[in-house]
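LOG
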Amino acid sequence: MNILVRELEYSAKLTGESFLMYEFKIIAKLKKEGFSDKDIRRVVLEENLFQYKFKSSISRRLTPLIQRINTIDDTLINMLLEDPLEYGVIINLYAIMKNDRLFFEFMNEVVRERISTNDLYLEKKDINVFITEKKEQSEIVDKWTDETIVKIKQVIFKMLSEVGILEDKKAGKLSRLIIQPELKDYIINRGDKKYLQAMGEYTG
């Protein structure tokens, strides 16, 4: 079942996010153990499970991480925790796209296009054109400050690098992700084929 049924509004929350693979797995483990969202916050903060220096940094990251974990089900949580790291990387990327409309649209409209046409290079102008188009299409995006836009661009490039799609950040070289058939089939059966396609995956 697709958990998110409402259409997401554009949000600048990406400015405070990152790929956070290590932290995502910690949240997944607590979720599997039956902790509520409220208890997850309490335990992570009290025990400093992220091993951050400042509690404010923990609090800022908790909300997007809990939102991510709430978009995946028990099967995906088990894959994340028990299967090789490459499963977890895809699941995390999938959860981020399900929670952030702008990031999903960038993946779907820019990255997917590059990979599907075998034009495996991403330039800064590509994201500039993308953001300009979104500003023209959305009053919400149009109201974002230049500082917010710069930060969002930085986060997008950083996450693409961390997931392995952006193989060489300096050259802008893109790389196709390897998605295990079991994980691919499961996401398709959840009705979420479009997120795989946005990663550049051929789904038939």
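LOG (cont.) second protein
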Amino acid sequence: MSDEEWERFLRESVTGAADAPVEPSARARAVERRLRERPGQPEGWRTYTPAPRRRRTGWYVAGSVAAAALLAVALFPQEVVGWFGGDDGGQAGGTVAAETERPREAPGAEPALRATLAEPFRGSPAARWADGAAGITVPKAKATGWMDAAQVERALRRSKQFMVAAGLDTRVLRGERPTRAIALLNPHQKDVQRYLRTALSSKAPTPKTDPLLLFSRFRPEQARQAGDVVKTRGRLTYREGKRGAVEVTADVTFVYPVAPAAGDGGRDAEVVRTIVRREVVMSWDDPAKVVTEPGTASLVSYALDMTNGGCSGPTGFFEPPFGTAGEQRADADRRVDPYDRSKPVDVSGGTASRGDDCATATRS
């Protein structure tokens, strides 16, 4: 209270004014004095600010979430079922996390649902795999051997490009020459160039000159792709190789849904999944120590494991077992899971073998 107001208070108290203010109590005067000593515009001692009504706010939020959930159920019922553990063949579970290391076990069992043209991956673990090149994981690059980190990153990128060009290029899948993939291979590596010439020109390839060891190919007159998606899962790893080279290993599984080329494309059309796992080791050599060309790699090794690709001798093309062809004799004592990536590629037999000793796949 200012001095002027205090004097007016004394005068009005003496005269007995009806609207004279009540003299503040000693406690009020003490509080007022403390507030005067503080800077700023303090809140009055008789003012009151109510606390937030958290329960009511929470009720509004819950109501909004409930409304959004009801709307989602109405618009996307199948997807919402997947959120709570429902199963429609793996389609609603979302894409699994990228593979960054060798898994410890095979994917879990899926419902035995028949693949269709509309849902070619139904009933398969591949339903939750990434599409095409997105399923091939590339690790972080760091200086290795003769390369700095940036050079290693380029080597990894080109290694992935090779796997994509060899296993996903639609022209190669139709049986055309894998030009893009070949362009990434060292033209001075004589044994590999000899293999390529023989494999891609011979009408009767041998197990050692089969082009399927590196490239995925179907006969257009026998099979056609069911849809435009190939599912993949795999990863690249690298280490220092011989003579300081950067040795990149690609371990990738490709799942190709195909239908008979002569089919009518109706909803009951037969769909077979050809499952191919490849392990390719590429050496990105130091040009000061190995004769090579910039941007190309030498092949160290390559291996193939496949299911539903044919059990006869090599023809240079995958031959999906449509109709009665699927009843070919297989070795019932050797059963393999083509989706099991917890073990190395089987180079001694298994689904990769041709002839009368094809193993039996536990699922496709």
